[in-house]
Amino acid sequence: MEYHNPVLLTASIAGLNINPDGVYVDVTFGGGGHSREILNFLGPKGKLFGFDQDEDAWLNVIDDERFILVKENFRFLKRFLRFHNIKSVDGILADLGVSSHQFDVPERGFSTRFDATLDMRMSKKNDLNAHKIINQYDEANLKRVFLDYGELKNAPALAKVIIEARDIKAINTTDELKLILGRFLPDQFKNKILAQIYQAIRIEVNHEMDVLKEFLEQSLEILRPNGRLSVISYHSLEDRLVKRFMKNGMFEGEPERDFYGNFSVPFKTIGKLIIPSDDEIKINSRARSAKLRIAEKK
Predict the structure, then answer these.
(1) Half-sphere exposure of 34 toward its Cβ, with a 13 Å CA cutoff?
(2) Can you tell me the distance from the alpha carbon of 126 to that of 205, in angstroms, rounded to the nearest whole number?
(3) Backbone dihedral angles phi then psi of residue 263, each to the nearest 5 degrees
(4) Does an H or E element contain 226, and which?
(5) Which of 48, 57, 175, 239 would bridge 115 by S-S if both were Cys, CB 3.0 to 4.6 A apart?
(6) Half-sphere exposure of 211 toward its Cβ, with a 13 Å CA cutoff?
(7) Which DSSP symbol is given to 164?
(8) pTM of the model
């Protein structure tokens, strides 16, 4: 089994415009596919740092003196680069979301295909898991999770049914959760709605939106002028944040204007939005929703 088939591999690496002697970061190391490709473009003086909080990914470490694996969440990007005496870098790549491996291991609880305990943690060090969310969150917080992170219009009804069911018996597995929510899963839309429900819970478990914001802000700080940021996202919540930050250097509001009335923004976008080809989607169905955006620091 492939640990993870890297999505948009050629385009995402080309977007970094790699300097052979530069310093680069792959903040979502996973199976190491993107990292190995970056190393192919680096010379003997080049350096690559990989970040991954998932213990399973650590087994894929690359035996290359130019490569260092940081076994942490990429929300700590700046801190651990400083630990390695790196204050600025030439390029950063992020392949967001869940890896193929995480989806394919039933006990992780990420996939709608398997029955599993309610987990969905990307790191076992995380105290919060799906079981706690489903069994301990109050109705208002459950509604918030499904509405904000799953964009489910019937979030209030989903939350209410979960509260009623767990008052009778704890909800321990993904199949139990599916059974309880069965009335909201019509056959023709079942997979789509389940994916939205799982996505919402997973994002909450792993604080994914907060982590993404922290990462983007730190990327701006540590990229050198003309350094590149290459980000692959898989759902609209991620993509909206990435798009707005690359355009304005902020997540809300408008950037300040300079003396001449022009917007002062820290990035220039490189090219247009890139999506996988039909051929790539045939080879790797999980590439279907991928969107690649590239920006260069001014």
Answers:
(1) 34
(2) 8
(3) -65, 135
(4) strand 223-233
(5) 175
(6) 21
(7) H
(8) 0.93
Indicate the Cα dihedral angle 105, 107, 108, 110, nearest 10°: 80
Q: Note the pLDDT of residue 257.
A: 75
Half-sphere exposure of 221 (CA within 13 A, CB side): 14
Rounded Cα gap, residues 61 and 9, in angstroms: 19
Tokens for 47, please give them: 């350096």
Tokens of 203: 């994002």
Q: Output the six-digit token pair for 41.
A: 């473009």
Tokens of 252: 């809300």
What is the average per-residue pLDDT within 225-232? 98
Residue 51 burial by Cβ neighbours in a 10 Å radius (0-12, 13-18, 19+): buried
Q: What is the pLDDT of residues 180-225, one digit of tens each?
A: 999 999 999 999 999 999 999 999 999 999 999 999 999 999 999 9
Gap between the Cα atoms of 78 and 168, Å rounded: 46
CB-based contacts of 85, cutoff 8 Å, min separation 6: none
User: What residues does 293 pair with on adjacent strands?
Assistant: 231
Look at residue 298 in the predicted model and tell me its pLDDT: 94
Task: Determine how β-strand 223-233 pairs with β-strand 291-297.
Answer: antiparallel
* Strand (E) or helix (H) holding 118: none
Please count the helices (runs of H) and the strands (runs of E) in the chain: 12, 7
pLDDT range class, residue 227, cuts 50, 70, 90: very high
Confidence class of residue 269 from pLDDT cuts 50, 70 and 90?
very high
The amino acid present at 287, given as its one-letter code, is A
